[in-house]
Amino acid sequence: MASRTRLPPPKKKKHRILQPDTADEYLAVGVGHEEAAEKWRAGDAVKGLRFYDRALQNYDQALALWPENFDVAYNKLLPVPLPEALANALEAHRLALKLAPENADVLFNTAQVLSALADDLNDDRQSETIALLEESVTHLQACLNLQSDALQEARVGFAKQGENVHRELPGSGESFDEPATPTSEHDTSEWARIEEPTTDATLLETATAIFDTLAVLSKALPSDRIDALGSVEEAGDKCRTRLESLNLNVDEDMQTEFLLADAKLKAAMLEAAYHSGTIALKEYDQRLKVAFASLVTSESVDARSSFAEALLDVVTAAEGHSDAALLRWNRTSKALELLAEAAQSSKKRDMNAIHMLRGDLELFRHRLTFDDGLPHNLKSVSARETLLQNAGKYYRGVIGVLQATKGDELSHALIKEALAAFMLTSDMESLERLTQRATSTSVAQQVLKEAVEELLVPDGVVAELSFNRVLQVTGRG
Known about the structure:
The protein has 477 residues and is mainly alpha-helical. It contains 18 helices and no strands.
């Protein structure tokens, strides 16, 4: 297939677009990611794949807002490498690592390939996933050690240079205007590989990658692998100790990103420890709040969203505890509070996901009001109506934005809005609308099935839906 010319952004911008607001700005950001992908494709396949992925995400976000924009739709036809490219990239990186086992860049990039391969595996290949992630961590640790040594050597070198204040300036001897004359009539120039100097930022990037990978590994470990969980904790502690000794100086955004990776690692380890039986639910809940304590004042949308997700893991863990109804209510309410804060400062493209989750959590709180252990004021008819109205409001907000897209995300919002309306009114008109949407597409059927499985629907409503043959079409009746 012949290559085609990429559509350039309509207007060349000299400044970086931090938060695109128009279709043209989304297009400019996407093209920038594509250009970066092409730049890195040959020398660093993994980094190239990451830029392609960012470009695709950017175009998807733009099309959700402007579904009839031809320029964005055309540019989404990316020449993205096949998934097999990861396997080829790993083979190439293993060769490079064999030739240069102490090259920090090769170690880091090999680890990224391994993590990407682990992410691409199915859930039923757990042992392979764990092996890939453990190898990734090993390479990242070696990379961090090399970078730490290089940074310390560079600091010593800078200190020595500072002692010598009398530096020779151009013009006092050798001329800097004339090019050097070759020693022979043949060009003897050679290719040279330029290594970027290790900085505080590059070292913290590696540490962040270690924590991210350890967090994924913690979630992948089966409950009987206590030994591996101890190794994860040891690896995290070693990384923190290494960083404390270096006293890194980085910008606030990078520091927040690292603190978030650290908090997510601690949360993942607490969840794994709970499911393995080494800590109780109360300890899990208390230590989770401590894990995110350093991010309480952060305005990062990712920090608030991640804390909310970690709280919901506690809520899920508490399922089946007869005395945990109030804890589940309070943690769900705190998650909603964090998502509300995130929505105020999030980019337009993130709002749909946040509002969908807020709607789901309001349905979940409504379901909780039918459990024992909650105060009577939370179980009143008016309280339940308010929760369902809130859920419907969030779903309708998503529907309004995605109305023209006709995609799966719109189906999710439509079926859940109809479900909330039926639970609020219990009239036949709402039931008919829900039935029509439940039978319209396989996606809508799956959404309703998952809503029941995720305990967003009270038992009484499940029975009523089954009786009226709504759930039969989803395979739940």
